[in-house]
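As a next step, the fold was encoded as tokens, giving this record:
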Amino acid sequence: MDICKLSQDIQAETEKIIVGKSDRIRLIIMAVLANGHVLLDDLPGVGKTTLVKSISLALGCRSGRIQFVPDMLPSDIIGMQIFNQKTGDFEMRQGPIMTNLLLADEINRAIPRTQSALLEAMEERQISIDGQRFSLPSPFLVLATQNPVESESTFRLPAAQMDRFLIRISMGYPQPEEERQMLRSLGDEIPFDTVRAVTNDAELVEAQRQIAGIYLSDSVADYIVALADRTRSHPQLMMGASPRATRGLYRAAKAWAAMEGRDYVTPDDVKFLAHPVLEHRLILKSSARFSGKTSSKVLEEVLAQTEASPSLDTLDHEG
């Protein structure tokens, strides 16, 4: 399978709807190919849900959507056992989580108890109902959107859930020319029916299996570990990158290399992906926040202070 071409086809279909966000689209495609969950964090109305829906259509997988609200219960997500009076037995009523691509819209509008219903599903690809475990379809990916925590009626996602998202990205406002193009091309209604499915769930699983075989040298692996370790000892961070973050960056770098048409990972792949993969997992100390520091600035310092040198076998692959 040509993963480079597959990623280009998915992007081309998505860009029938989304204007001027090629870099964000590529990062989401990378996360899908790396079997990782995505969090889109931005202001209302900038196109988060539209982007996720467009990519879902291009992927051609079974998808479901949950609109998170404060009075939602965990059973509204994972399902429940219901007693059938006619048969005298309990029957399983599946929740919308039983799908390949779950659009969790405005995830931080739900109370923490409801948000936690996704923890097991995101990590283990299974759910538990009344002591019984049910496997989720493969692949299973959460593409979530959230509004800034300063917005009304929102709840901050716990660190355990943030750590389960492979990447967090923001859309940002479009440039004036991009917005004019959007108005001219989309008109009064978003033409989702023009987006063609270019793959399916079976092909995605095969692509993920193929990406696992991408070569990553010991020196690049050491670079990933060094970055994570430096965040854990940084004096301005209360919490650094977890081992789950290290594994996420490892998988993301392999997927990115495959999308670039290579069968090996370079340190530049790791460096490029460090911000979307690591930044949202870092928690600043109060003193650092008061002094105007941000997780992004701290991560820039970590990247500047951590050297990476490609190994001889990586150079052989490049040659």
Summary: The longest helix spans residues 243-259. The chain has two domains: 3-206, 213-318.
